[in-house]
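Q: Got a minute? One more chain.
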Amino acid sequence: MATLWIWNVVEYGAAAPVNDPLIGLDPVGFDVEAQDGHIGKVDEATNEAGRGFLVVDTGFWIFGKKRMVPTSTVERADRDERRIYLALTKGQVKDAPDYDELRRDEESHRSDVEAHYDRTRTANSTGQN
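A: Always. Here it is, folded:
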């Protein structure tokens, strides 16, 4: 499911929507909002073709843990407010595997993350959560 790691967002507030609002923008330090509230800040971001992700530092919310969030879960970005909005709830992010910086590029780690968010999408599409 390679599309899980692809940016799928629209920038609001621009003259016309663009497919990738983060082109030329470094989102590190942006606040991150889940569907049900603030979850942290972008600690790291990559837009590798087919492998893009954000690393979200959740601060004290879940005891300072970091989560890898595939770029396809980003709904929109607001450059003026320096905020990124996810198509996920706090619980869905909290329940994701812990981010492991040493394993971030390993297929097994990405597969674990992908499986979590794939289950999340399946649950959302069937009305479960």
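A: The chain has one domain: 2-118.
Q: Perfect, thanks.
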